[in-house]
Amino acid sequence: NYIDIATYHRQLQAGETTCVLATKHYLEQIEAHRHLNAFTEVWAQASLERAAQLDAQIDKAPLLPLHGVVV
Description:
mainly alpha; about 70 residues; 3 helices
């Protein structure tokens, strides 16, 4: 569960989740609620690629405030 950013960042640093897993979770939610027409465009492949890049940076530097946050 992605309750808040601080918890999410602790989970990332502990290896309990990844940016890719979080992105997949939200992409699945978007697909499951497609009938709501809440999103006009979704860049799934680009978001997964960016999430993988962010995962590769986790051990290299402190996390920025919105590191890996899916918007």
